[in-house]
Amino acid sequence: MGVVGKVQGAGGRVGDRADLTVQRGAQSGAQTFRQVLEETGLRFTRHAAERLQRREVPLGEEDLRRVERAVSAAERKGAVQSLVLVGEAALIINLPTRNVISAFHRARLKDGIFTHIDSAVVVEGAADEKAD
Q: Would you list the DSSP string of 105-123?
């Protein structure tokens, strides 16, 4: 799945973004999650960053890029607060601010009920995108 691996919180905040690192499996160089976020314009609240780490939600660079495209598409449709399903992650995103406000592992959802959203976007995987 590419860059998945472990998402770690660094304990501090950079601006209004949690300072996270995506580790590349056994490879030595790690790219900061912040660098990928800056490319996409997405931000993770401290709450969402902690949930990513605590719930071991796999989220890679390509996943973030697909989320960004999904956010843009949902905004064009007038959505404001959206559930975005990408890979094994379920993210609640405030679209006007591009803040990821909560994160869940899809396989571990207790009841599968989400409130206070006005839209849901299911992001297809890379293999599905190539087939189109």
A: EGGG-SS----S-SEEEEE
